[in-house]
Fold this protein.
Amino acid sequence: MPRPQTVTIAESFDAKLPGEPDIEITFKKEYREMPPSSAKSTVDTDAPPAYTKLQSEEYWQIATDALHRSGARQRSTLGAAMPALENGHSLTGEADVLRLSILQHFTWSILPCNHWFHRATKSWPEKLEHLAVLEMQATHVIHEKDFMQAAADTPAEYKKKVDNGARFEKTGATWLSNNALWLSKQAAKYGEGCRHVAIFDWMAMFIFDFTRKIHNAYGLFFRKSKSVAPDRMNYCRLLLAFVVRALNEWCEENGVQPVYFGHLESQALLRGPY
Protein backbone atom coordinates (compact mmCIF):
# COMPACT_ATOMS: atom_id res chain seq x y z
CA MET A 1 0.00 0.00 0.00
CA PRO A 2 1.32 3.48 -0.80
CA ARG A 3 1.97 6.11 1.82
CA PRO A 4 -1.16 8.18 2.47
CA GLN A 5 0.70 11.47 2.22
CA THR A 6 1.63 12.69 -1.26
CA VAL A 7 3.48 15.78 -2.44
CA THR A 8 3.83 17.45 -5.81
CA ILE A 9 7.12 17.58 -7.65
CA ALA A 10 7.41 21.28 -6.79
CA GLU A 11 6.75 20.56 -3.10
CA SER A 12 9.43 17.88 -3.06
CA PHE A 13 12.05 20.62 -3.25
CA ASP A 14 11.03 21.60 0.29
CA ALA A 15 10.80 18.03 1.61
CA LYS A 16 13.21 15.46 2.93
CA LEU A 17 13.84 12.24 1.04
CA PRO A 18 12.00 9.23 2.49
CA GLY A 19 13.70 7.56 5.43
CA GLU A 20 12.91 5.02 8.08
CA PRO A 21 10.28 3.76 8.84
CA ASP A 22 8.91 4.47 5.32
CA ILE A 23 11.87 2.60 3.81
CA GLU A 24 14.15 -0.02 5.30
CA ILE A 25 17.85 0.76 5.51
CA THR A 26 19.42 -2.63 6.09
CA PHE A 27 22.94 -1.49 7.02
CA LYS A 28 22.77 -0.64 10.72
CA LYS A 29 26.33 0.45 11.48
CA GLU A 30 27.56 4.01 11.12
CA TYR A 31 30.38 3.35 8.64
CA ARG A 32 30.43 1.02 5.64
CA GLU A 33 34.02 0.46 4.54
CA MET A 34 34.58 0.40 0.80
CA PRO A 35 36.90 -2.35 -0.44
CA PRO A 36 39.68 -1.31 -2.84
CA SER A 37 38.45 -1.13 -6.39
CA SER A 38 39.16 -4.08 -8.66
CA ALA A 39 38.84 -1.91 -11.79
CA LYS A 40 42.28 -1.16 -13.20
CA SER A 41 41.10 2.15 -14.64
CA THR A 42 40.06 3.31 -11.15
CA VAL A 43 43.21 2.03 -9.47
CA ASP A 44 45.36 3.80 -12.05
CA THR A 45 43.51 7.12 -11.66
CA ASP A 46 45.09 9.58 -9.25
CA ALA A 47 42.90 11.01 -6.52
CA PRO A 48 42.88 14.80 -6.17
CA PRO A 49 45.53 15.79 -3.62
CA ALA A 50 43.08 18.21 -1.98
CA TYR A 51 40.08 20.35 -2.90
CA THR A 52 38.81 23.89 -2.41
CA LYS A 53 35.45 23.99 -0.67
CA LEU A 54 32.39 25.11 -2.60
CA GLN A 55 29.74 27.08 -0.72
CA SER A 56 26.28 25.59 -0.10
CA GLU A 57 24.81 29.10 -0.17
CA GLU A 58 25.76 29.39 -3.85
CA TYR A 59 23.88 26.18 -4.64
CA TRP A 60 20.91 27.33 -2.59
CA GLN A 61 20.64 30.51 -4.66
CA ILE A 62 21.01 28.64 -7.96
CA ALA A 63 18.21 26.23 -7.02
CA THR A 64 15.96 29.05 -5.80
CA ASP A 65 16.43 30.99 -9.04
CA ALA A 66 15.77 27.87 -11.10
CA LEU A 67 12.54 27.05 -9.29
CA HIS A 68 11.14 30.56 -9.64
CA ARG A 69 12.34 31.47 -13.11
CA SER A 70 9.42 32.00 -15.48
CA GLY A 71 7.04 30.83 -12.77
CA ALA A 72 8.37 27.28 -12.99
CA ARG A 73 6.70 26.29 -9.73
CA GLN A 74 3.26 26.99 -11.21
CA ARG A 75 3.74 24.93 -14.36
CA SER A 76 1.59 21.85 -14.74
CA THR A 77 4.47 19.37 -14.91
CA LEU A 78 5.86 20.42 -11.54
CA GLY A 79 2.34 20.44 -10.10
CA ALA A 80 1.98 16.72 -10.74
CA ALA A 81 2.15 14.33 -7.80
CA MET A 82 5.37 12.54 -6.97
CA PRO A 83 5.26 8.75 -7.39
CA ALA A 84 3.69 7.14 -4.34
CA LEU A 85 6.19 5.46 -2.06
CA GLU A 86 4.94 1.92 -1.57
CA ASN A 87 5.78 -0.41 1.26
CA GLY A 88 8.70 -2.77 0.79
CA HIS A 89 11.46 -0.42 -0.33
CA SER A 90 14.72 -1.69 1.13
CA LEU A 91 18.12 -0.04 0.68
CA THR A 92 20.90 -2.62 0.72
CA GLY A 93 23.25 -1.97 -2.18
CA GLU A 94 23.97 0.51 -4.97
CA ALA A 95 21.18 -0.86 -7.17
CA ASP A 96 18.61 -0.19 -4.44
CA VAL A 97 19.80 3.41 -4.02
CA LEU A 98 19.63 3.88 -7.80
CA ARG A 99 16.11 2.41 -8.05
CA LEU A 100 14.68 4.53 -5.25
CA SER A 101 16.50 7.63 -6.48
CA ILE A 102 14.84 7.29 -9.87
CA LEU A 103 11.45 7.26 -8.15
CA GLN A 104 12.03 9.90 -5.50
CA HIS A 105 15.05 12.00 -6.37
CA PHE A 106 17.08 12.77 -9.46
CA THR A 107 14.51 12.26 -12.24
CA TRP A 108 12.30 14.93 -10.68
CA SER A 109 15.06 17.18 -9.41
CA ILE A 110 16.04 18.22 -12.92
CA LEU A 111 12.53 18.75 -14.31
CA PRO A 112 12.73 22.57 -13.88
CA CYS A 113 15.59 22.52 -16.40
CA ASN A 114 13.12 21.19 -18.95
CA HIS A 115 11.08 24.36 -18.59
CA TRP A 116 13.62 27.10 -18.96
CA PHE A 117 16.52 25.83 -21.05
CA HIS A 118 16.22 25.93 -24.80
CA ARG A 119 17.96 23.58 -27.22
CA ALA A 120 19.58 26.61 -28.78
CA THR A 121 21.28 24.96 -31.73
CA LYS A 122 21.02 21.67 -33.57
CA SER A 123 24.67 21.01 -32.72
CA TRP A 124 23.99 20.59 -28.99
CA PRO A 125 23.84 16.78 -29.06
CA GLU A 126 27.36 16.66 -30.49
CA LYS A 127 28.75 19.30 -28.15
CA LEU A 128 26.90 18.27 -25.00
CA GLU A 129 27.54 14.56 -24.56
CA HIS A 130 27.95 14.39 -20.79
CA LEU A 131 27.17 17.51 -18.78
CA ALA A 132 27.15 15.94 -15.31
CA VAL A 133 27.61 12.53 -13.73
CA LEU A 134 25.75 11.17 -10.70
CA GLU A 135 27.46 8.17 -9.12
CA MET A 136 25.33 5.99 -6.84
CA GLN A 137 26.80 4.18 -3.87
CA ALA A 138 25.49 1.89 -1.17
CA THR A 139 24.38 3.68 2.00
CA HIS A 140 26.84 4.87 4.68
CA VAL A 141 29.96 5.19 2.49
CA ILE A 142 30.18 9.01 2.23
CA HIS A 143 31.51 10.54 5.46
CA GLU A 144 32.70 14.07 6.04
CA LYS A 145 35.61 12.99 8.23
CA ASP A 146 37.22 11.20 5.27
CA PHE A 147 37.26 14.47 3.30
CA MET A 148 38.11 16.93 6.09
CA GLN A 149 41.92 16.87 5.93
CA ALA A 150 41.80 17.52 2.18
CA ALA A 151 39.49 20.54 2.44
CA ALA A 152 40.84 24.03 1.82
CA ASP A 153 38.84 27.22 2.37
CA THR A 154 40.68 29.21 -0.30
CA PRO A 155 42.79 28.54 -3.41
CA ALA A 156 45.81 29.77 -1.45
CA GLU A 157 45.18 27.22 1.28
CA TYR A 158 44.70 24.55 -1.40
CA LYS A 159 48.10 25.38 -2.88
CA LYS A 160 49.67 25.21 0.57
CA LYS A 161 48.21 21.76 1.14
CA VAL A 162 49.45 20.48 -2.21
CA ASP A 163 52.91 21.99 -1.69
CA ASN A 164 53.06 20.33 1.71
CA GLY A 165 52.83 16.91 0.11
CA ALA A 166 55.66 15.56 2.24
CA ARG A 167 53.10 15.17 5.03
CA PHE A 168 50.81 12.91 2.99
CA GLU A 169 50.12 9.69 4.80
CA LYS A 170 49.65 6.29 3.17
CA THR A 171 47.06 7.53 0.69
CA GLY A 172 48.99 7.96 -2.53
CA ALA A 173 49.78 11.70 -2.55
CA THR A 174 46.40 12.91 -1.35
CA TRP A 175 44.94 14.27 1.87
CA LEU A 176 41.80 12.22 1.28
CA SER A 177 41.48 9.11 3.40
CA ASN A 178 39.56 5.84 3.75
CA ASN A 179 36.40 5.76 1.62
CA ALA A 180 37.00 9.27 0.27
CA LEU A 181 40.16 8.03 -1.42
CA TRP A 182 38.31 5.49 -3.56
CA LEU A 183 35.28 7.70 -4.09
CA SER A 184 37.49 10.51 -5.36
CA LYS A 185 39.48 8.19 -7.64
CA GLN A 186 36.19 7.06 -9.19
CA ALA A 187 35.04 10.66 -9.54
CA ALA A 188 38.36 11.74 -11.03
CA LYS A 189 38.06 8.97 -13.63
CA TYR A 190 34.71 10.40 -14.72
CA GLY A 191 36.18 13.89 -14.40
CA GLU A 192 38.56 13.22 -17.28
CA GLY A 193 35.57 13.59 -19.60
CA CYS A 194 33.07 15.45 -17.45
CA ARG A 195 33.87 18.28 -15.09
CA HIS A 196 30.87 17.95 -12.76
CA VAL A 197 30.58 14.74 -10.73
CA ALA A 198 28.32 14.04 -7.74
CA ILE A 199 28.37 10.98 -5.49
CA PHE A 200 25.26 10.01 -3.54
CA ASP A 201 24.56 7.22 -1.04
CA TRP A 202 21.07 8.34 0.17
CA MET A 203 22.61 9.44 3.48
CA ALA A 204 25.01 12.05 2.09
CA MET A 205 26.22 13.66 -1.14
CA PHE A 206 29.60 14.92 -2.26
CA ILE A 207 29.95 17.18 -5.29
CA PHE A 208 33.19 17.44 -7.25
CA ASP A 209 33.90 20.23 -9.70
CA PHE A 210 37.06 19.45 -11.64
CA THR A 211 38.77 22.23 -13.53
CA ARG A 212 40.51 21.53 -16.80
CA LYS A 213 43.48 20.38 -14.76
CA ILE A 214 42.04 17.27 -13.16
CA HIS A 215 43.93 17.59 -9.88
CA ASN A 216 42.67 21.11 -9.22
CA ALA A 217 39.34 20.14 -7.69
CA TYR A 218 36.53 21.90 -5.86
CA GLY A 219 34.16 20.03 -3.58
CA LEU A 220 31.09 20.22 -1.38
CA PHE A 221 29.97 17.75 1.29
CA PHE A 222 26.28 17.74 2.18
CA ARG A 223 24.38 15.70 4.72
CA LYS A 224 20.87 16.90 5.43
CA SER A 225 20.69 15.85 9.06
CA LYS A 226 23.90 17.71 9.95
CA SER A 227 23.76 20.68 7.60
CA VAL A 228 23.65 24.09 9.23
CA ALA A 229 23.16 26.30 6.15
CA PRO A 230 20.89 26.99 4.47
CA ASP A 231 18.09 25.63 6.67
CA ARG A 232 15.88 24.53 3.76
CA MET A 233 18.54 22.96 1.56
CA ASN A 234 17.86 19.33 0.74
CA TYR A 235 19.09 16.75 -1.74
CA CYS A 236 16.52 17.62 -4.43
CA ARG A 237 17.47 21.30 -4.39
CA LEU A 238 21.17 20.49 -4.27
CA LEU A 239 20.98 18.14 -7.25
CA LEU A 240 18.96 20.68 -9.23
CA ALA A 241 21.58 23.35 -8.50
CA PHE A 242 24.35 20.90 -9.39
CA VAL A 243 22.88 20.37 -12.87
CA VAL A 244 21.92 24.00 -13.47
CA ARG A 245 25.38 25.23 -12.42
CA ALA A 246 27.00 22.81 -14.87
CA LEU A 247 24.65 23.83 -17.67
CA ASN A 248 25.17 27.54 -17.01
CA GLU A 249 28.93 27.08 -17.20
CA TRP A 250 28.64 25.08 -20.41
CA CYS A 251 26.45 27.76 -21.99
CA GLU A 252 28.89 30.49 -21.00
CA GLU A 253 31.90 28.59 -22.33
CA ASN A 254 30.16 27.81 -25.64
CA GLY A 255 28.54 31.19 -26.21
CA VAL A 256 25.01 29.83 -25.78
CA GLN A 257 22.42 31.91 -23.96
CA PRO A 258 20.06 29.78 -21.81
CA VAL A 259 16.52 31.11 -22.23
CA TYR A 260 13.04 29.88 -21.44
CA PHE A 261 11.69 28.16 -24.52
CA GLY A 262 10.70 24.65 -25.44
CA HIS A 263 12.14 21.51 -23.94
CA LEU A 264 15.57 20.09 -23.19
CA GLU A 265 15.57 16.35 -22.62
CA SER A 266 16.65 15.48 -19.09
CA GLN A 267 18.67 12.55 -20.42
CA ALA A 268 21.02 15.06 -22.08
CA LEU A 269 21.63 16.74 -18.72
CA LEU A 270 22.41 13.96 -16.32
CA ARG A 271 23.88 10.55 -16.95
CA GLY A 272 24.62 7.76 -14.56
CA PRO A 273 28.01 6.02 -14.54
CA TYR A 274 29.22 5.25 -18.04
Strands lie at 24-25, 51-53, 90-91, 132-136, 151-152, 196-200, 205-210, 217-222, 270-271. Residues 111-125, 259-274 have pLDDT under 50 and may be disordered. DSSP finds ten helices and nine strands in the chain. The two ends are 35 Å apart (CA to CA).
